[in-house]
Amino acid sequence: MEGCSNKVSRDSHPMDSIINVGKNTIGGNKITIIASPCSVESEDQIVNIAESVKLSGATFLRGGAFKPRTSPYSFQGLGEPALELLKIAREKTGLPIVTELMSLAYLARFIDEMDIIQIGARNMQNYPLLKELGRTNKPILLKRGISATIEELLMSAEYIISEGNEKVILCERGIRTFEKYTRNTLDLSAVPILKRLSHLPVIVDPSHASGLWWLVEPLSKAAIAAGADGVIMEVHNNPTKAKCDGEQSITPNKFDKLMKSLRAIANIENKEL
Ligand code: PEP
Ligand code: MN
């Protein structure tokens, strides 16, 4: 990847890319904090969490409407009604929305109504989907596949950029290894490697990387210290009752404390948070 002419490559674009999302930017000097529950469960839940994380300094709101669950019998997300609830939360807080797209059937709606389209680990190599996204002008948050190499992640980003859409944000969310204690193994070295190979912003997901709420704090601190452009994490007001991923969700209180530490680390790195 070094010394190659792919559009994702730093050789083809030496400066860091800064992605514009409405009046917000991702990358460059800025640390982006994307927070909220794994899935949207109700209007009260999403609005309540959105208001708390906004007060603590989150810059984007995440929330799943369509959930890629291992079992078809697990909660699959509220689907389209959740998009309406996300819009209500955006209206009340001003936080732009990040949510996962799994099917092209909803692409037009996501383009019109959402701010960033998340492509989850399971779809990182869904090339027809990536090509379609490349023909849009929408910011794409591309998560690393569960068993994908760094080069495969970059080539997936290339699928989007080669079609014309340069607004890609890369996300390291842990990979599958022999280690069973954590849900995945956070590949922290992917952060400086991706930053060296590519000009695209890189964010880290400590929630899916670890599967454990108490690892979210140390892993997100390490991510910012390692040069990540931000973190995406799961926050829930009642983690034990969460419909999805409660065991890896931190409470709004813990999120508030964590933001203070992340701000201090961002400061040392000469970045804005
Ligand atoms: C998610 O962000 O809720 C998610 C399902 O993540 P991943 O695709 O990384 O597993
Ligand atoms: Mn989740």
Automatic annotation (TrEMBL):
<dbReference type="InterPro" id="IPR006218">
    <property type="entry name" value="DAHP1/KDSA"/>
</dbReference>
<dbReference type="InterPro" id="IPR006268">
    <property type="entry name" value="DAHP_syn_2"/>
</dbReference>
<keyword id="KW-0808">Transferase</keyword>
<dbReference type="InterPro" id="IPR013785">
    <property type="entry name" value="Aldolase_TIM"/>
</dbReference>
<feature type="domain" description="DAHP synthetase I/KDSA">
    <location>
        <begin position="26"/>
        <end position="261"/>
    </location>
</feature>
<dbReference type="Pfam" id="PF00793">
    <property type="entry name" value="DAHP_synth_1"/>
</dbReference>
<dbReference type="InterPro" id="IPR052899">
    <property type="entry name" value="Class-I_DAHP_synthase"/>
</dbReference>
<protein>
    <submittedName>
        <fullName>3-deoxy-7-phosphoheptulonate synthase</fullName>
        <ecNumber>2.5.1.54</ecNumber>
    </submittedName>
</protein>
<dbReference type="GO" id="GO:0003849">
    <property type="term" value="F:3-deoxy-7-phosphoheptulonate synthase activity"/>
</dbReference>
